[in-house]
Amino acid sequence: MATPTLLTPAATPKPLPLIKSKLPAAPVAAPTSNAALPIPPQPCRREFLSVASAGILSAVLIGPVAAPALAASDEEYVKESEEVINKVRSTIGLDKNDPNVPDAVANLRETSNFWVAKYRREKALLGRASFRDIYSALNAVSGHYISFGPTVPIPGKRKARILEEMDTAEKALLRGR
User: Whose CA, among 23, 27, 110, 168, lies 20 to 30 Å from 175?
Assistant: First the structure.
């Protein structure tokens, strides 16, 4: 095993070497009669990029703008929401021994995913009571079938809450809410 050695300070510390810059030195101009003329500043890369990107973005924003995919109308929302409500009622009302349950659940999940994807981004619909109730019920139904599979029936309390939300959503739709 090696023996540890102690470092003892030298009697006089050595000065550190100077670090030379790798950048070229700026030329020092000799004082002449033209020294009073100001030198125009060179544009830096950051300024150039900000001006160039502003030009590109303004050209893109001024150009033809595609409208976001919004729901066609209030009537379409009401019609599709009623279809979703009827599909939820028919699917959760099926007997657990019915051979069509897995297909009905798959169809319901596809329909509910389409409905949620279409109307979730609509700011005008987010505050509606019908949207809130349908969204909550679809979340409960989808969560159950994802967790337990399509063949396990929905428990009675959850089923009653889902049907109650569907009833209140349907009433809200009739009132235009």
Answer: 110
**Contact call for residues 141 and 155 (beta carbons, < 8 A):** no
The residues near 69 (Cβ < 8 Å, ≥ 6 apart) are none
Question: pLDDT averaged over the chain?
Answer: 77
Residue closest to 93 by CA, chosen among 57, 141, 136, 50: 141
pLDDT digits (tens, 9 = 90+) for 11-23: 676 777 777 777 7
Kindly write down the DSSP assignment for every residue of 74-85, as one continuous string.
HHHHHHHHHHHH
Say if residues 141 and 88 touch (Cβ distance below 8 Å).
yes
First vs last Cα of the chain: how many Å apart? 85
- pTM, two decimal places: 0.57
Please compute, for residue 138, the number of CA atoms within 13 A of its CA located in the half-sphere on the CB side: 27
